[in-house]
Amino acid sequence: MSPPRILLALTAALALGACKKDEVPEQEELGTFTTDTGGLTEDIPVDVSPDAQSVFIGCEWNDQSGDVATVWEIKKPDSSYFYVNQEWHPDAASAGNKPMRVGNHEEYLPILMPVSPQATLSQGAWSMRVWVATGGKKREVSCTKVERTAEVPSTALIDVAFVFVGIDGINAGNAEGNDAVQGLITSMGNIWADAGLGVGDVSYSDFGGDVNRFAVIDNDSTEPYDLYKTVPDDVGRTITIFLVQEITSGDGAIIEGVAAGPPGAATIGGTAKSGMIVAADSLADDASRVAQVAAHEGAHFLGLFHTTEKDGRANDPLSDTPACSGSDDANGDGRLAPSECGDGSNLMFWAPPADSANSLSDDQGWVLRRNPAAR
Ligand SMILES: [Zn+2]
Question: FRET label pair with 375: which of 88, 119, 200, 263, CA 20 to 30 Å apart?
């Protein structure tokens, strides 16, 4: 009687697979952990399933004013290091710089694994320790995990929610028929196509909060975080792009876009890392540049770092993207130019020039398609 049983088992397995593919990954509370007076948590257990493709972990902590948090270390089930904080950890030199990166973050700490095909997940009991720069106070750190178990397709789709924040002449009611908005979406999809990524379902809404406060974003304030927090809890796999008039900064630099992270809070709304902002004041004149900015910020949200940072002191953890260093800065102004760098034509160069920097590598596509927000 065994053949029918085998058939039944196969049917059940297939049905389960089909079901998982269409579902938003579940959020799992990892618990609340008290730091020592130096701001360091104990080991936070993180179970990784056999079929996990990627894991996003977001952590918040109490009484935050002025704090910056990051990851101290991440250990694999065999207790070897997956990641060690290179700036502060006593084992930094012996463990070495792993193909994994975590930034220093205010308000909400976003962690995505893996961010390189050179450091993938394995099933079992992982652990990590979070460090909050506290100034001698104990803190309560609470973390939530989202695990993507659905297989990664060769072409993945990203659903996008555009939120209009005081854009002249463009709103949710007319966006569908607006050439600039539609041009933006088409160009963004064309750029992402290089990485096996496409724009899926698109929705439009008008910002329901204080438009006067958020139409011009002060990037040196908490305004980006406060705007991201308006992303609804049930955002699912949709990524949210706020189109505002302008993004300003105290040093006078022109900022065309900013993203939470990297990475953004995948499938988790309502946090200080739940969205991205694109300045759309030039949308009618140059939709392709705004699309390039949106594609760049979207890629940050989905887990990509700059191939080279402005001063060349950091690079992404990918082996197939060219990298530039400070010694390439010929005129020594602390700002690497695209012409000085082999990665000046990559979409994720720190300042990608218009039209000529739309390329993405295989490894970048591998990371993008694997995000829990991709389907
Ligand atoms: Zn960037």
Answer: 119
Of 148, 170, 194, which marks where a domain is finished? 148
Distance (angstroms) between ligand 1 centre and the Cα of 133 equals 25
Find the helix or strand (DSSP H, E) in which 338 lies: none
Angle at 291 between CA 289 and CA 295, to 5 degrees: 120
How far, in Å, CA of 300 to CA of 278, rounded? Answer: 13
Residues forming a β-bridge with 31: 143
Which ranges in the chain belong to alpha helices (H)?
2-22, 92-95, 179-193, 211-214, 223-228, 287-301, 362-370
pTM: 0.93
Q: How far apart are CA 347 and CA 58, in angstroms?
A: 26
Distance 351 CA to ligand 1 centre (A): 7
C-alpha of residue 126 to centroid of ligand 1, in Å:
30
For residues 160 and 243, give the distance between their C-alpha atoms in angstroms, rounded to a whole number.
Answer: 12
Overall domain count for the chain: 2
247 C-alpha to ligand 1 centroid (Å): 14
Query: Is 375 in contact with 237 (CB distance < 8 Å)?
Result: yes
- Angle at which helix 179-193 crosses helix 287-301, to 10 degrees, equals 50
- Tell me the per-residue pLDDT of 206-256, one tens digit each, with 9 for 90 and over: 999 999 999 999 999 999 999 999 999 999 999 999 999 999 998 888 899
CB of 75 closer than 8 Å to CB of 128: yes
Q: How far is the CA of 348 from the centre of ligand 1 (A)?
A: 6
Q: Are residues 104 and 208 in the same domain?
A: no
Domain that holds residue 271: 156-306+356-370
